[in-house]
Amino acid sequence: MNFDLNKLNKVFDNRIRVGIMSALVMNDEISFKDLKEYLDLTDGNLASHLKNLEENEYITVHKGFIGRKTNTTYAITNLGKLAFQEHLAYLEKLIKKMK
């Protein structure tokens, strides 16, 4: 089996986006604050990666309030789940072939 870079999703080349998607696969939704703490990132760094995932329609954003405080949560879309699963499946296939 030859390694075909085109079969890997470029959006998931970044470890932060892989971390975000992994967290979202395991949770129905997760808040910005919780993602920030989980991944140990700055606001700006996390926000830029979330924007990339949102622009690719891999996540949805819900902005609301808890009391008077703003609360932004994120959820994975069906498209995002499928794209992430395909990316991981190809990586697993490559690893198995190399053994």
Question: What key attributes describe this structure?
Answer:
WH-like_DNA-bd_sf, 18% strand, alpha+beta, 3 strands, WH_DNA-bd_sf, Transcriptional regulator, Arc Repressor Mutant, subunit A, 99 residues, 55% helix, 4 helices, 3-stranded antiparallel sheet
The low-pLDDT segments are none
| Overall average pLDDT | 94
- Rg over CA atoms, rounded to whole Å, is 15 Å
Q: Residue share in helices? A: 40-55%
Euclidean distance between termini CA atoms: 12 Å
CATH class: Mainly Alpha
The helix-strand sequence is HEHHEEH
Major pleated sheet: 3 strands, antiparallel
Structural shape: elongated
Strand order of the largest sheet: 1-3-2
CATH topology (fold) name: Arc Repressor Mutant, subunit A
Number of helices: 4
- Proportion of strand residues: 15-25%
CATH A-level architecture: Orthogonal Bundle
Strand-pairing-aware structural class:
alpha+beta
What is the CATH H-level superfamily?
Winged helix-like DNA-binding domain superfamily/Winged helix DNA-binding domain
Number of strands: 3
How many domains make up the coordinates?
Answer: 1
